[in-house]
Each structure stands twice: as structure tokens, then as C-alpha cells.
What does this fold into?
Amino acid sequence: MAPTSLSRPASTRHPDSRFEQRLAQILQHATAVFYEKGYEGASMRDLSRSSGMSLAGLYYYFESKEKLLYLIHKHYFTTVAQRLTERLEEVQNPEERVRTFIFNHLDFFLANHKAMKVLSHEDDVLERELGAEIAALKRQYYHSCSDLVEALKREHSSEFNTRVAVLSLFGMMNWLYTWYNPRIDPGADELSRQVGDIFLRGIRVPAAH
Amino acid sequence: MAPTSLSRPASTRHPDSRFEQRLAQILQHATAVFYEKGYEGASMRDLSRSSGMSLAGLYYYFESKEKLLYLIHKHYFTTVAQRLTERLEEVQNPEERVRTFIFNHLDFFLANHKAMKVLSHEDDVLERELGAEIAALKRQYYHSCSDLVEALKREHSSEFNTRVAVLSLFGMMNWLYTWYNPRIDPGADELSRQVGDIFLRGIRVPAAH
It folds into this structure.
């Protein structure tokens, strides 16, 4: 299998193939290594050791540490966005749609908390085409949230700075990797309800007519 | 001057001494290096080059990269906490006191945005005594915020999970380093008002009696 096959769009590959499963597994191991050592501190040798793939194989299929980081970003952002699309299909109410976004994001990243840190910390490592492609995925994901918030804003005839509100919401959700403790903090369901309460009450601003 | 003098408590040193100024300057340069290269990626040689201090001098006064990172944490957390104490002296109203916390935090970290990233990213590098001391400073700072939120909660007879609310607020504020763009986003005054609006409306939950 040639390295380029890794970058074919998800839709052209069979999602349940053994290859896909093995790829997801390798990316999960790589995420754990970047989580522990940071991107700079991790070597291809560390990545090979943790994934159980030979160093030669790792270079053959993934080319470089940067390419692995790129695939991690792509894998997690594509997956969380796909789940969101599926979940939103059943929800009509604008407020419930924002709550669905929050639940989908927290549910996914609490289950993948190492990824949450790696995606946050190694945000500016990728350069050129790889960096541009991931930036586009993230922009798309940001807009899927801001579209939902804009719809709610119209419904309520509210007035607020959407960019500040949406990025504050991402802050509430993404900062979790620094403090969330499953032994004392609520699970994804209850936590999304609480974060959703703060955010939704917080933006319910009647417009000055 | 012996290296140990660096860790004397702030109160026993004259805050305007030339030494203090030079120290703050070196820590600022070191912050910029850690911001650019990450803690793992930065060398003592990089730090020496950027601060204009000889490598031998850097090792003599600061001992290690870890000690420098420790001093950066200590410097920024002590300074932001001192400013908060001063500002709170003039404010009585519980809601205004929470707004003062938000403004003080944003005002300080927007002016020191490289520190915001370094303090967030290199949170788990420090170990043993140094790590414990910084963890205590951060805990104290967290509690200065949660005390203000608790006071407001009592005044409003609200019911919410204080820990989730306060850490969501820190998320809104600290995530800023990933997105804030001074050319298009509001300044510290207006931004604290907007973040304060979302948060304060968000936690205004009447208790179920």
C-alpha cells in the first residue's frame, strides 16, 4: 500500500476495513505518545515502540512525524464532525441543536481526552499544505457551531458578538482537558447540560429595539 | 548574588530594584522563546541568545531550564494575583467583584499573550517542590475566583456546580490565546464585558425552593 493512499478522502475508503481499524489504532497510540512527550519531545522511535509497527514500516506508511500529526488532526476532526451531522439529522429545535453540538463535542473528547490536549497543543506545528488542510477542517467545524448559534440568535432576536460567544463556548469545552476529573466531575450528559445552561442563558440577550 | 535569592518571597524584595527589572526582562525573553519553540524544543543556548545573558550567567543564576520555567509561572501568577487584590479593594458589589476578576485576568493576559500560552502548555512540566509550589499558587488563584462566585451565588440564592462554572469561566478566558486577534476582536474592556455578560447571565439560576 502506497503512502498516498492514506490521504484519500474518507468517503472513498470503506470505513470498516481492517486497514481503517489498524490506522485508527496506530493514530491512537501516536496520540498517546504526543500526549505524554509533546510533539517536539517525541521521536519516530517512540512512536514505533508504542504502536508496535517497525520503524521502517512507520516511515514507509507515514513518511514523517508531521504526517502522523496531520493524520491525527484529520482523524479526530473528521470523526467528531461526522457524528455531529448524524446527530443533528434528528433535531429541529434551534436551542436543542446547539445543545446537540455541545453534547457531541464533550461526549467525543471526554472519551478521547488525550486527543483533546494534542489537538490543542500542537495546533501550530503543521505547515504548508498539511497545515492549510487541517485549518480548513477546523474552520468548517467552527462554522458548523456558529451557524447553529446564529440560527438561535435569529429565533430569539438576540444581539451579541457571535465570534466571541462561539469561541467562548469552545473555550469552556476545550479547556476541560486541563481540569476534568472523571472521579469527581459529572459525565458527558450532565456536563453538557451544565455547560449548555451557562452558554444558552448567557447569550439570551434581548435586542435593543 | 546567589541563585537562592531568586526564590525569596516577593514581599521581602524591593519591587522596583534594578535587579527585579532585569529579572522580569529575562523572564519575558524566556517566555518568548518557550512560546516559539515549546519547553522541550528550547535550549539554554536559545534562552541565553534571546535574553542577552551569557550561557554561564544563565546557568549560574537560574541553574536550569526548569528553574526558568518555574520563575515564569511564579512571576505571572504572583503579578496577576497582586493586581487583583489591589483592584478588589475598591469594589463591594458581588457581581462587580466577579467582573473585576474577569477584567483583571483578561487585561493582564491579553497584554502578556505569550505567557498565556506558555503557562497553559507547560503546565505539567514542573515536578517535585517546584511543581508543588506553582500548583499551590494556581490553586490559590482559582480559589480567589471561586470565592467571588460563591459570594454571588449566595446573594442570588442560585444553585449550580461552582467548580464546573468557575472552570468554564477560566476556559472562556484562557482559550483566548488560541484565537484572539487584536485587529478584529474587542479590547480588554469590551471583551471582559461580553465574557462577563455570558458568564453572569449563565449562572443566574434561581434555586428550586
In short: The first helix of chain B runs from residue 18 to 41. Chain B touches chain A through 39 residues (CB under 8 Å).
